[in-house]
Amino acid sequence: MKLNYSIGTDEEVQRIHETSLKILSEVGVSFRCEAAFDIFRKHGARVENGIVHMDEKLVERALSTLPKTYDWYDRLGNKITIGNKITHNAPSYGPMYVCQNGKYELSNHKHLVNFHKLHETSKVIDISNPNVIDVSYVHGEAREKYRLGIALKYCQKPLMGLVEGKAVATESLETMCRFYGLEDVRRQIIATGLIDTMGPMQMSTAMSEALITYAELGQAVIICAGQTFGVTTPQSMAGVYALGNAMILAAMVLAQLAHPGTPVVYCGKFDSSDMRLRSAAAYGGIEAMLACATSRRMADFYGVPLHSGTSNTDSKLMDYQAGAESFMNLLTAYLLKVECQVHACGLLDSMNSIGYEKFILDEEKIESLKHLIKGYEIDDSTIMFDSILRTGPTGQHFKRTQKSYRRDFIMPKLSIRDNHNSWMQAGCPSAESLATKEWLRRLEEYTMPEMSGEQAKILDTLIPEEYR
């Protein structure tokens, strides 16, 4: 017996798709990239004053080459498959602040290394990410190489890519190829780039170039329509999805025209909003559940994997709000079988911050959600009628722990479940205090990956001397 969660009708999904096609044709998209314009013109799209207009025939032809799944390889040759309705978790993406034991400070090298170590030792994080936290403490020209070098030094899991324009995308992919010992980067998918549209119906030069580069070099991309309800979109839920879906479609079309068969992950990451706020965005809003569920329907409609979910919250503290909002987002992702979940653990402060204790607690919640979606079996052996009959109406079943109990129930390590007296005698621990001990233990027990002499030389070209 398993939980089910879905939204909408086939007719409503079709309506969103048709409206998106109308937007692409009549409103158009700004790509701000000559290479993108050349590709669209070559395939018959109308380009006027920097705006690309594409008709339904062009869109449908491009969508026909989208793959349903793809294999993503790590440096050891192991792979994960994206697109089989199994959730794979990726780390945070660029928080500026780090919260440790309730205190905040700016991101720095120590925190970057620490979180890479936590990701590498995590049972629930499946993917590594060079963009884990903000690295503005590194000189601008060295920043992207530094990101990549630190990730390659400390992590062995499949790696997300760098997407700051054509040059960075090309150089980073070629560097990863050499580090992995591959002759040609096109041989297999070693990176997935997160392409964020960053606004209604437009894509920056850097994002457009990176999208084309990843496609031409045989890598995968996540297309994220990062929009805020009622601010960069119409002030209705339906309008949000129609506009956001149109932008995702436009980027998917460009990827397929640049290189047919490019794996694309759909990401309708539409943020809630609160007009009372200066920033307007409200990442922990309940509407995120609607966004995730609608995105699942649209990704299935186009036959591609989905990225959605997150451990996000708008709270700045480890409080009720943080737990409730994070659980809401994580639960939705697992119920909908989201294939790729970036920002899976540790987020606070509307994605501006990441916390050590929050990371550990989110990990444990994900383990419980993995248990939840397995459901439970109903058959003669699990109904256990014979046991009920033997025990009778006044007996008890607590004789010994059976396999069925270990299978159907999960026992978290960080939740406080003791009775009051036992809790007092233990020193009144909190989930946060237990989480602190856990992340410190993990860092202490981390071991560096093995590395060849050639790999060490590559890292020396990437990481500034003061950070080696």
TrEMBL record:
It holds the Pfam family MTTB. GO terms for molecular function: methyltransferase activity. Keywords: Methyltransferase, Transferase. One of its GO terms (biological process) is methylation. InterPro entries: MttB-like_sf, MTTB_MeTrfase. Belongs to the trimethylamine methyltransferase family. This is Trimethylamine---corrinoid protein Co-methyltransferase.
